[in-house]
Amino acid sequence: MILSNYLSVLAILLPILVLATCLVVSTYNLYFHPISSYPGPRLWAISRFPYVVSLYRGRLHIDIKEIHNRYGPVVRIAPDELSFIEASAWSGIYTGGVANQGFIKHKAYSDAQGFESLFDASDENHARLRKLLGKRFFAAASANKQEEVIQSYTDILIKRLKEQVCEAPIGNQASKDDKKATESGVINLQEWYNYTTFDIAGKFTLSEDFGCLEGSTYHPWILMVLTHFKMSALVMALRLYTPLDVLFVKFAPARFLRLKHEFLRLTREKFGRRLSKTYPTSQDDFVAAIFNDPKSGGVTRDELEANCILMILAGSETMATSLLSATNFLCKSPQVLQKLTEEIRQYDKEGDLNLTNLNQLPYLNAVIRETHRVCPPLANAPARVVGPGSAMISGRSIPPGTAVGVTQYAAFHSPTNFALPTQFIPERWLKIEESERFAGDNRDVMRPFSVGGRDCAGQNIGMAEIRVVLARVIWNFDISAVSTLAWEDQKCFMLWQKDPFFVNLKSVARDV
């Protein structure tokens, strides 16, 4: 009887206690929190829940852009987080300086893969990993040295695309896949870009491609990596509500646990095969660069595996996204496509489409830069947390413990930074005298690869890959879209989730 009465009272008091706690926390967050003076939606200021829901739905970049459009250049997107879209915020947050020492990585990005890579390493480990892993392989000079790999896989891409649209095969013998070619010439270019970038990433990382281009399909390990990465995005969202992330991993559905174990098994098998080769240092790949570095003894096997996974996934997905979005925007802008086509086809020989020449093409580079503005590789802010002392960011004193970041998608689509921000207009990146209507654009806010010690290590290789593949596809084919993508409807988690993109390719006839 006593226990029954106790439970009855508890059943009444517990909801009241929970409600009272919510009211107290909400009141504090709205009116008394150190960043309560910053504007933003009230629900987002009260709780992290709207942020997590938006992240899980893949719409966080859109929602934060709309918040900035309504409330201004610095907005509150969570009880303890501010988003910036001003150019000066880049240096204040990511490069620090004397005034802003002690920023730390946000806990949402902690160890998302199960072991640390350059993406999720703690601050003390990141500097060590970046120095050991990036000194040789990611140097600016490496892009030219690795051009041969990029060109060779682009050769295969062009060959396979011509086979798909019923062109005569290159060489004297017909491909065994000719029977698969379609008379219409309609193909899903999203898949072919992904095949190319994954094969290139595999070659750069492990001296072994995945056979995607030759087999016209994804390697099973790649499908496993992509799925595992999406699961990691879910864990990242839950990490904002510790210990939900721990509980999810511990008590996850059997399917998720099987997926994780199979992923780790395949990963260790693949890297074990690479490391067991008798010539681990003779190959010109990422692994060899580590072995050849006399200071790389501090890299563990798990760290090497984690960074190879990052190289393959981020290096392929971001490049494929840039190629796909550029082609999509070009198809939606016939005049832009025509202008770029004329610039690229000024070369009579395909062999002239090398990096030395492509780096000097102003309109090609303007198209790529505008692509990164409209569709940045990482749409959401890589957040940092202000350390024990307050920090000055864009002329504002930010209290300790506040998460801060530049939300790229919002910054690059803001009318305060760019004229006609929703339109794809490469001319804005030409010389000012050639694009006077964009003279007021805030070009300094454009940092698609971030800045500082955590900027994209592989950006030089990535830009080389985009230039070569895009230029050679346009040189070889007339392109028209069967149906274009509404990029504002594409979901973005840690990376963009891309829909199929069907185009009609017509091979350009040339006198031999």
From TrEMBL:
InterPro entries: Cyt_P450, Cyt_P450_CS, Cyt_P450_E_grp-I, Cyt_P450_sf, Cytochrome_P450_monoxygenase. Pfam families: p450. Keywords: Heme, Iron, Metal-binding, Monooxygenase, Oxidoreductase, Virulence. Its cofactor is heme. One of its GO terms (molecular function) is monooxygenase activity. Heme binds at residue 456. Belongs to the cytochrome P450 family. This is Putative benzoate 4-monooxygenase cytochrome p450 protein.
